[in-house]
Amino acid sequence: MQTRRIAVIPGDGIGIDVTKEALAVIQTVCGVTGDAVRTTEFDFGAERYLASGVSLPDGTHDMFRRDFDAIFMGALGDPRVPDMAHARDILLGTRFALDLYANQRPIRLLHDDLCPLTGRGRRDIDFVVFRENTEGLYVGMGGIFKKGTADEIATQEDVNTRKGVERIIEHAFRYARDNGRAKVTMSDKSNALRFGHDLWQRVFAEVSERYPDIESNHLYIDALALQMVKNPAQFDVIVTCNMFGDIITDLGAALQGGLGMAASGNINPDGVSMFEPVHGSAPKYAGKNIANPFGAILSAQLMLEHLGLAKAGLLIEKAVIGCIEAGETPRELGGSLGTREVGAAVCRRIEELGG
Q1: Cα dist. 52→43, 46, 47, 48, 172 in Å?
Q2: Whole-angstrom Cα distance, residue 11 to residue 20?
Q3: Run of H or E residues at 129
Q4: Shortest CA distance to 233 belongs to which of 325, 333, 127?
Q5: Which residues belong to the active site?
Q6: 262 to each of 167, 296, 341, how far by Cα in Å?
């Protein structure tokens, strides 16, 4: 039996709290399914950075590639590191170093009561957003001239390469075909960003021709945001650039119950991928047993499914839905359970489902 090897970076703040529950869920579900998973924890985060000045030791990314099948990462951020240098190095550095070019965000409502839209329910909100994860405005190209003066100039360059745009669009269409999704929507702002997003337009048209069985359409990003609220049921798969994807996936998280319910994967189809909940580290709530662990648990589900453990992923999802239906939820979802109690409830339901 193949053993899946997972590197774990709990991170900072409530990242540590919710990661603990996600790991408990992984061990429970694999105990039920018989899948072999080995987790190895690393103390990369603010505490280590403050003590040593090092975010990630040299060779860490090579070690991830060589020794692990996936990475599970908790939230990063600590007020004692005001410029968040360690968080950028660990999170963004890993995305770039491992070429995790496809950010996958499932937008799936698990219970009607969690949706803020009147008259919308589970049947309406079930789509996936793919955000280009290694280019765009987040590559850090630009500069500041005459900083701090009345004549200050700041530039930030938006980088779009043919390779980068084509592979994320191709990934979205391939995912749609492999997962029974009927339509891929590409979103850009090519009416204003006439150079970089002209590239998106042309490449999308070319790639869509390779998938005649998949419907394709285009919406400008402002229109897409409006339609996500007005009629989210029209979407199956959305693909967009780095910044726009960052923004609309938080809107999507609101449709499914908030950031505490949002899972994500940073995917390299040909290498090791990284999975993380997308909420912040919320240091003031750390260790108080009040954080919502569902986002971390659902990220673990996404990771196990990516590793080929479909049965384990299905059990986790069923257990989370069962908890929500029974009101076994944290306070932010209207329940009364703490972080640890929610994790225990999910584990108990997995065992019941598996039995």
Answers
A1: 12, 10, 9, 6, 41
A2: 11
A3: strand 126-132
A4: 127
A5: 138, 189, 222, 246, 250
A6: 24, 8, 19
Phi-psi region of 140 (alpha: psi -120 to 50; beta: other; left: phi over 0): left
CA distance 159 to 137: 6
- Whether the Cβ atoms of residue 237 and residue 130 lie closer than 8 Å to each other: yes
pLDDT in tens, 68-99: 999 999 999 999 998 899 998 999 899 999 99
How much is the pTM?
A: 0.95
Question: If you search the block for the tokens 């049921």, which residue do you land on?
Answer: 233
Residue 77: which of 241, 283, 264, 222 has the closest Cα?
283
Counting every residue written for the chain, the total comes to 355
Instruction: Using alpha carbons only, give the angle 99, 105, 106 rounded to the nearest 5 degrees.
Output: 140
pLDDT tens, residue by residue, 28-48? 999 999 999 999 999 999 999
Dig out the tokens for 107 from the structure.
Answer: 């937008």
How far, in Å, CA of 142 to CA of 165, rounded? 21
DSSP character at residue 210: T
User: For residue 246, what are the CA distances in angstroms to 103, 175, 338?
Assistant: 9, 20, 29
Strand partners, 267: 102
